[in-house]
Amino acid sequence: MIKQLSVRELADKVEAATGPITEWQFLDVREPWEFQMAAIKHPNCPVVHIPMSVVPLRQNELDPAKPLVVICRSGNRSMMIARFLEQNGFGELYNLNGGMTAWSREIDPSVPLY
């Protein structure tokens, strides 16, 4: 089952960490130009960028045994990828509810809206 993770829950987790969160994975599935324009840039949140179109080819770069938060602009593409990964053996999956738009509005207004 894919769970929804709010941007506040993610921000609290990142801020509470004493270093990079390595027991979880953070996957941004947006296009390269989107990722360059607006991304979560926090040393405790090591985000892996794999565009949606190539996730099927690169899913082996992810650990199916670790919790995985999937990120996109609004939460739609990330949910599609989370469903795909669930069908391919990934266990604990989270969709970042509201995506980078919610992150910008609620957590970090320095991240551009687009």
Question: How would you describe the overall organization of this protein?
Answer:
It is a single chain. With 114 residues, the chain is an alpha/beta fold. The chain has a single domain (2-107), classed as Oxidized Rhodanese, domain 1, CATH 3.40.250.10. The protein has 5 helices and 5 strands; from the N terminus they run βαβαβαβαβα. The protein has a 5-stranded parallel beta sheet. The N and C termini lie far apart (30 Å).
Percent of residues in beta strands = 15-25%
Mean pLDDT rating: 97
The total number of structural domains is 1
CATH superfamily: Rhodanese-like domain
Query: How do the SSEs run, as a string of H and E?
Result: EHEHEHEHEH
Distance between the termini: 30 Å
Low-confidence stretches: none
Structural class: alpha/beta
CATH architecture: 3-Layer(aba) Sandwich
Number of strands: 5
Largest sheet: 5 strands, parallel
Count of DSSP helices?
Answer: 5
> What fold name goes in the CATH topology slot?
Oxidized Rhodanese, domain 1
Can you give the helix content as a percent range? 25-40%
CATH top level class name: Alpha Beta
